């Protein structure tokens, strides 16, 4: 394997967070809400202060996974209090049988390897250090 191809960034002092959100439909109401509103949610996340990167993934027509990278816990919590996030939570509480939702927050990875260019957590760090978003 070409070792110059593989990059192993130094992560010892990194404080960024990774937030993973999973959504899956339980009803036609949830399906419609998810697909009508997911792009505005992604856009709001991408524009949020402290969000350095978001990776949306369609698992199936009924499931979506969003991975976002945040500079600090404070930035992430500010987004959780945003109107866009609160709108989704109101819908889920109003129609609890419409969508399944999970979210998990992770800190610094124990190790990371990237081929060709840093993505994910290391890309988030690099973007933050350069003062721009990917």
Q: How does this model look, in words?
A:
This protein has about 130 residues and is α+β, with helices and mostly antiparallel strands. The protein has one domain (about 15-130): Alpha-Beta Plaits. About 40% of the residues lie in helices and about 30% in strands. The chain is built from four helices and six strands, in the order E-E-H-E-E-H-H-E-E-H. It has a four-stranded antiparallel β-sheet, sandwiched between helices. Strands 1-6 form a two-stranded antiparallel sheet. Strand 3 and strand 4 form a beta hairpin. It is globular, with a radius of gyration of 16 Å. It starts with 5 loop residues before the first strand and ends with a helix. The model has no long low-confidence stretch (mean pLDDT about 80).
Q: Return Rg in Å.
A: 16 Å
- What is the terminal-to-terminal distance? 28 Å
The shape is globular
The overall average pLDDT, rounded, is 82
Structural class: alpha+beta
Helical proportion? 25-40%
Keywords, separated by commas or semicolons:
single chain; 134 residues; alpha+beta; Alpha-Beta Plaits; 4-stranded antiparallel sheet; two-stranded antiparallel sheet; 38% helix; 29% strand
Topology, pairings included?
Elements: E1 6-7, E2 17-25, H1 28-47, E3 51-60, E4 63-70, H2 73-80, H3 83-94, E5 99-106, E6 114-115, H4 120-130
Antiparallel strand pairs: 1-6, 2-4, 2-5, 3-4
Outline of the structure:
This protein is α+β, with helices and mostly antiparallel strands and 134 residues long. The chain contains four helices and six strands. A hairpin with a 2-residue loop joins strand 3 (51-60) and strand 4.
């Amino acid at each position: 394997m070409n070792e110059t191809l593989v990059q192993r960034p130094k992560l010892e002092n990194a404080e960024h967070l990774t937030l993973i959100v999973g959504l899956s439909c339980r009803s036609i109401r949830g399906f419609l809400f998810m697909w009508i509103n997911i792009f505005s949610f992604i856009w709001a996340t991408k524009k949020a202060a402290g969000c350095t990167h978001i990776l949306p993934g369609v698992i199936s027509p009924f499931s979506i996974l969003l991975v976002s990278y945040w500079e600090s816990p404070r930035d992430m919590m500010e987004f959780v209090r945003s109107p866009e996030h609160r709108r989704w939570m109101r819908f889920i509480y109003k129609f609890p049988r419409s969508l399944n939702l999970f979210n998990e927050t992770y800190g610094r990875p124990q190790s990371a390897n990237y081929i060709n260019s840093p993505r994910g957590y290391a890309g988030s760090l690099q973007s933050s250090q350069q003062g721009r978003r990917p």
